Amino acid sequence: MVFASTPNESELRLFGSQNHMEMIFFSSDRAEIEVLREALAGVSIPSEVRDAGSAGGTVLNGSQTELWIQNDADSHRAVMLCVEMGLGFAKRPHSPKLVEAESEAC
């Protein structure tokens, strides 16, 4: 499946012929994408946010927002940052706390 937001050849050339953009993460939670984008910028990894589910500039319900890094050579550092911060695909699901039932005296 190809989204309208997939970079075309002219967009790829814009960032240099040896670099190409790589989607590093997607989510329906735009706030999570923004936190990760800011973290990437903090370590000098240029990125771009795209709305995958848009039509004519209108974001569709249930759409995914994508975070793309501009240089695939930064992929490893970007993934390691995600792991370090527990964001993106490295996010661990919340595990429920186990509560031991108190035994009642008879």
Report on the structure:
The chain is of the alpha+beta class and 106 residues long. It has a single domain, classed as Alpha-Beta Plaits, CATH 3.30.70. 28% of the residues lie in helices and 19% in strands. The chain contains three helices and five strands. A hairpin with a 2-residue loop joins strand 3 and strand 4 (58-59). The longest helix is centred in the middle third of the chain and has 13 residues, at 30-42. The N and C termini lie far apart (64 Å).
Amino-to-carboxy terminus distance: 64 Å
Number of domains: 1
Instruction: Give a count of the beta strands, DSSP E runs of length 2 or more.
Output: 5
Estimate the helix proportion, in percent: 25-40%
> What does the average pLDDT come to?
74
Summarize the structure.
With 106 residues, this protein is of the alpha+beta class. Helices cover 28% and strands 19% of the residues. The protein is built from 3 helices and 5 strands, in the order H-E-H-E-E-E-E-H.
